[in-house]
Structure formats: C-alpha cells, structure tokens
Amino acid sequence: MSKNPDEDTTAVLLHERRIFPPDPTIRATTRIKDWDAELRAGDDIETYWAEKARAFTWFHRWTTVLDTSDAPFYRWFVDGTTNLTYNAVDRHLTTRPDHVALRYTNEQGAERAVTYAELAHEVNRTANALIALGIRKGDRVAMYLPPCIEAVACMLACAKIGAVHGLVYAGFSTRALAERIRDADAKLLITADGTFRRGKTIDLLGVATEAVRECPSVETTVVIAHVQDPEEGHTNQNVVSYHDLIAQADARCEPEMMDAEDVLFILYTSGSTGKPKGVVHTTGGYMVATATTLQDVFDINDHDVWWCTADLGWITGHSYSVYAPLLLGTTSIIYEGAPDYPQPDALWRVVERDKVTKFYTAPTTIRHLMRFGETWPQRCDLSSLKILGTVGEPINPEAWIWYYEHIGRLHCPIMDTWWQTETGCFMISPLPISPLKPGSATKPLPGIVAEVMDVEGRHVPPGRGGLLVIKRPWPSMLRTLYNNPERYKKTYWEQIPGGVYVSGDIARMDEDGYFWIQGRADDVLKIAGHRIGTSEIESAFVSHHAVSEAAVIGKPDPIKGEIVKAFVILRGGYEGTPELTEALKKHVRHELGPIAVIGDIVYTATLPKTRSGKIMRRVLKARELGIDVGDVSTLIET
Ligand code: WTA
Hints:
Layout: H1 24-29, H2 35-41, H3 45-53, E1 64-67, E2 75-78, E3 81-82, H4 84-88, E4 100-106, E5 111-115, H5 116-132, E6 140-144, H6 149-161, E7 164-167, H7 174-184, E8 188-192, E9 194-197, E10 200-203, H8 205-213, E11 220-224, E12 239-241, H9 242-247, E13 258-259, E14 263-269, E15 277-282, H10 284-297, E16 305-308, H11 315-327, E17 331-336, H12 346-354, E18 358-361, H13 363-370, H14 375-378, E19 387-390, H15 397-407, E20 414-416, E21 450-453, E22 465-470, E23 480-481, H16 485-493, E24 501-509, E25 515-520, E26 525-527, E27 530-532, H17 534-542, E28 547-557, E29 561-570, H18 578-592, E30 598-603, E31 608-610, H19 617-625, E32 635-637
Parallel strand pairs: 4-17, 6-7, 6-8, 8-11, 11-12, 16-17, 16-18, 18-19, 19-20, 29-30
Antiparallel strand pairs: 1-2, 3-13, 4-5, 9-10, 14-15, 15-23, 21-22, 22-24, 24-25, 26-27, 28-29, 31-32
Helix pairs in contact: 5-6, 7-8, 10-11, 13-15, 17-18
C-alpha cells in the first residue's frame, strides 16, 4: 500500500517567480562565465577536488584523493602533508608581503591594519609563545575572544604548530564556556580583558576566570589586553599577559608538517537539544574547499576588500573571515560591534570608508536593519560594492529585494549560500553569473552532490519538499564529533537508509533544479494533515510592508492537529491593531493559499535567537506550551 506523501514529505506553499539575470558587468568581469559547464566540471568529484588541491603548497603530495573504506569516517588527500598557516600566510610573503591581510575596525571607529608580512611576524611570535607554554601538536587550545587581529593570530599560530583550536563565542556564559573547555579537555585558555558592545565594555576575563575554576585541564590562562592599554597591566595574578609573552618570542617559526587528516579545530554547535556537539574539522580538505568556494562564489581577486560580518566564534568566521580569504591572499575585514550602533548605518559607514567590494552577512542583520528604513544606507557611498552574500537562515524574498535594491543598488548579485558548521564550506550557492531567484540558494556547487529525499531514502521529485541530504563526501566535511563517533554516525548518517549525510534541514527543488530551504526538520508544522516548513509562512509575513521579522510555531489543536501561531516584529511606524492582524491573516492566506490559516498573531519587540541570529522556534513553542525550554545557554532576545 502506498503511503500518503504528506507523511514524509513537506508541502510547497511559496511560489516565488521573480528571476534576476546576471548583471552584464559581472558577466564581463567574473572569472567563471558558464555556470552549467562549471557544474559539469564537478561531476567527477575526485578529479575536481584534486585539481583544486593543486593550487596549494603540499610538503608531500597525497596518494589517494578520497578514501571511503571506513565510511562515514571519510579521509581526503590521504598521505598528503601540508600546513594551513603556511598556505594562508607564509606562502604570500614572496608575492604580496605588503598587501593588507586584515583590517580590524570597531564600533568606536578604531582601526588597525596588518599586512601579510606583519601578520606572519605576529603569528610566528604567538606560535613560539604557545610552544614556550608547553603546547604541542594535537593539544587543544580554547579561546574566548572578541573579533580582533590577535584572535586571528592565535588561531593561525595553533594551526602553524599543529595545536587544535576551539573558539567559544565571547557572549556565552561561564557555564557554556566551561562545558566546552571540559569537553575538549583544553590545556590552555586564551581570553581578553573585554570586548566593546554598544558603547560599553563587557568583561570577558571575569567569565573566563570563573569558567577555568571548573576546568582542571587548563594549565594556563593567557589574557590579551584589548580594551585596556597593555602597559597598564592587569591585577589578576593567575593569568599570563599575551603582550608580554609575544614580546619575548622569536619571530621565526617553522611550520609543523600536518597530515591532511590531522585535526585543525573543534567548534561546538548547540544543536536544538542536548549537549553541544564538538564538530571536528581537519586540515587538507578544509583548506582546499573553503578557499575554492570563496574564490568561485565571490569571484575573489587581488583588488578585493572582503567583509564577512560573522563573529570569529562561528564557523562562518572561521572559514570565511580567517582561513579562506587569507588562503586567497585577499584583504579581510574584522569588525567588532553591533550593526546598528552608534547608528543604523554602522556597517555602511565601514563599507564606504574601507571601500568594501564583497559583503557577506546574515538575513537576520538585513531584516533588523530594514526596520530603520532605507535612508541610512542611502546616505552612504556604497558604490565600491560588487557582490553581496547571505548565510545562516533562509532569506525571505522581501529581505532579499531590500538588500538588492538598497545595498546592492540593483547591480550586485546576491549569493545566498547554504551550508553548516558541519559542512565547513558553502554547499548550495549561486555563482556570480547565475540567474537568481530571491529566497533560493540555487544549486549545489561544483563537486557537491545534494538531493531531496524522504525518510525512507527515496528521491523526492520537484513539487514536494523533504530532507536535504548530501550524497557524496566533500573535502571540508566534519570528520566526527569530538569524543563521540557514535553520535556522529547516528546524527548525520543513520537517519535514513542509503549512507547519505542528513543535514537536518528540509528543502524542495523546483523544476529548474533550484533548491529552496524550508526550515529545520525539527520545526516542521503539521497543519490539517500537511507538513509545512516554517520558512515559507514566515516569508509570507515578511512580504507585508508592516512586518520586519516573523517566527511561526505549530500549537496543538484538538481539531486541526496544529494551528499556526505567529510572532511578529513590526517595522518602524506600524502598530499591532486588530485591523492589522486581520490584514496580515488575509495577506498570508493570499500569498500561500488556503492551507495557510493563521490561528494567532502576537506582536513582539524581540524574538529569541541564537547568538548567531537564528530564530529559536523551540523556545517560543516551549514557552507557549509551558514546558521546560531545555538548554538556553545560547539564547538572546533581539
Ligand atoms: C541554516 C552556518 C537557508 C540551515 C553556516 C543550516 C540556511 C544552519 C542558510 C546551519 C541559507 C544556513 N538558507 N538556511 N543560505 N545557511 N542556513 O551551523 O538551517 O550556524 O542547517 O552554519 O543554518 O547553521 P550553522
């Protein structure tokens, strides 16, 4: 007996029909001119990735591109040895020593730029300081740091000597920090005296000191004087000053020979429930895939000023503020501060001043800035911008259009990149020459094989949604969960039959082969027998001129199974009147059809989000149902 397709696929409600052909100037200047040909080049994944790997310096060339014998513990570039920091910094010293590698700026307008030569100097001294503290290849080094040049130097110093870094976002609580340090069994913690946020300085050392009390593995705590002058010293006797350490350190340091599969870093991702997962990334494949994808998707060249606004504590900061841009020898901006402080044009002022050419941010930031209206970006000179990007959540078509019109001024293509902490690199994304559909991340990149499947591992044809899976291994995939290979297998590889990687997202493909992410599988609503992703309903809300952000949850209902409850943030100048509620219900129904009956709408000034800006619908739901919300150490209301 065949099952009702609604049981294990999701309904498609949103039909976004706008298509934006590539801008003629982009088409004329970009390196890749033919999308289809480029995608075809990736059909044979091993040949494709081996070809890309040749662009880097290997001390010893790999013997096998991909080893699948111990799947899902895949190995890439077997027997290859290299060093990521050598490739990201030292390699550029002969070709571009004076090119700016990093440009740090903060909300107070302070600036510091370092060239590749200066960065090499700082990285080497830091690496030698780490060695002097007893850190060796394979040791874990935890970091609880604001975005700053020293933080990047510490990451690169670890990679240079083969130590494994584990950054923890410097907004997490003592408990969250301690839990991660303990899980990674870190020997050293590097922190800072504080960080700037909205005109205040926030103490980090206090949190770090308290956390370390619960972490017996930590032998030393190093503190970077970031908000205070290093000369002023610090009063805490139990910590070592970073500036003192590197002042005495030698500026020469030989790179450690790293096996392609040696661990580069551990990064914890909270997941929706339970203990954070320590995602493990290794050296060779991560290097090749992050740099290749940045190069292709944002068409990076020598004149670019690249700005990824993510904090260094997230995978986006790791891959695309630090490793990929430096591997490509470009200039990367490191920004410390909120996007709307001191004013809602904070980001656009930096774009104007530093002549940023490629700008990459999160949909939540765009939606947040939309609330303040377009006069803020209009007052800034954004003419240096050539390509825009987003990551982190589905971008609602209206937010896409706002970004396209007011930031890209109708000629910058928007690269909507779908990927995860676990994937390491962009997976589904357009290239600059791709025709764009607002709200779609378009197609899997060359060398990436993605598909939509149902829970039994069957292909889901266009017209229905299902589980987004990756069918073949890729070089920057996570290798395991730290200390928990069983959980790695169970979470990602054993959810459905067929040995495919299950991303935890739901998506649909359209008739042109474009992917549309419908939300997280955990958040799916079940309305009158239909399984519906959150993203389409939320996008329908955001397409109303009064709405800036929306989150929907399913609320149990004795008759319908679940009814939709929406939490809505209005744009400036609108009020949540009963008339508006009626208008919104009508609007959503009009956009999505009769299934989309909205039960309740509540107006709110903030929504619960993860620190990286994702709406936490499970928190809204738990509150609604009066049940325990579980681990909310990553929660923020904004
Ligand atoms: C979501 C961030 C839609 C998705 C790099 C994924 C997206 C999760 C997109 C990973 C996108 C990321 N469109 N959804 N372009 N990019 N997501 O681990 O649910 O912080 O599984 O990595 O963010 O989040 P993470």
